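(Fold this chain)
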Amino acid sequence: MADGAGDGAEERADLAELLARRALTEDAARPEAVARRHATGGRTARENLADLVDPGSFVEYGRFAIAAQRGRRELEDLIARTPADGFIGGTATVNGELFGDDAACAVLSYDYTVLAGTQGALGHLKKDRLFELIERLRLPTVLFAEGGGGRPGDTDYPVVSALDTRAFALWARLSGLVPRIAIVAGRCFAGNAVLAGCSDLIIATEGSSLGMGGPAMIEGGGLGVFEPQAVGPIDVQWTNGVVDLRVKDDAEAVAAARRYLSYFHGATPPGEERDQEPLRNLIPTNRKRIYDVRGVIDAWCVDNAIQYIGAPATSFTGGEHLGGQTVTGLADGVIIPPFVMPSSGAFTLATPASTVTVGLAYTCDLQTLPLDLSGQEQVQGKVKKINSVTARLENTLNLRIGPNFDQLTMMKDTVQGNVSSMRTGLAASAQVVTDLYTGDARTYPLSAYTVPGQYCLRQSDPLPATVLGLFPSFEIGDSK
């Protein structure tokens, strides 16, 4: 403040200049770029960081950096169009209301609205500084990695082999020291993908692509022309295990990162516990006494599902531990179609239900041993054809059978019956109430002559299936 200035003094010119320069780094200074970003369904880098960190806790490093392109662009243009050199980073707290000072972490984000999130010379220097700080202070780190890799357009720093770029080695050196979370939304190639790939946890959104070589590099190498979405798409990277957590969008990715950080910041107050008293009498103390095993199953002593029993409702919570996973289940006996559990753990049903069970889906497969007749005619080496199979079942629905797992048909008896609490796995509008089937169910699976004479059964719905015995009727042909 100027000498002799009081409360009503005018703002200092140098302070006004600083504030004006700072304003140019905000999203509000670039409405067109922000609008283009929103039009693609994404959020800006600063919007993601603001959603992640505690309000007022972010301390940014190198905010006033610009792209190193003074040799070919005007300074005013660089200030307006390349704020922070396309890389925003600093320290902050996340979940501070739970952990206080222990909630300190580092947050970094490439800005895709600035030169497609490419890695600039000054951005690399900022990363070097922050990575050293992260190592010294042992700060858990979140990196928003979207971007196109190295930037060839920087002119102010002569580059031959870029051996002075220390960021990649510094990032790798953090392995085992601090948790490193990478969030991939949109396109992430080359150097950006290197940092993401070296992280401890990769969270990726629907529609994202993650690949070491981007379309330009692939085409330049003479390998053809590919659209960005064809290079390392989420369906591929999720299936092959590169992506650890698949989420819907930026908001779910940020929520997942915040939850993951909480695992390293300390303990939180315990949540609500279910009444443990019924567990005491589930299994008799006398080991010779029989007991109803269904009561043990109903106790739900598992961590891969949640269950609600109460007044009919459509909204449910408590599935945070299943966030990002594909789940299915039953609502009053009706199959809930598979869906991806939101990171918040909250989900809704179209129809109220009073008993809802949701969890990870799994498939139970059974394949019989090669057919043989003990003590009778030798059939090994001869072709066999299964004409029919009688399955002795208990409390079963929607069991499938066939000569192999690619040719399965539903056993007719397991989708028929009278009124009970279970329903078939048909479309919601066509579902009918049916009993669990107990008895002998005969079916005629598609079959051809084979030497093994095997057949397969599968239960892929969240419904019970208990097979007590299998009795095939078959023909024996000549030796193969």
Observations:
- Residues 1-5, 416-433 have pLDDT under 50 and may be disordered.
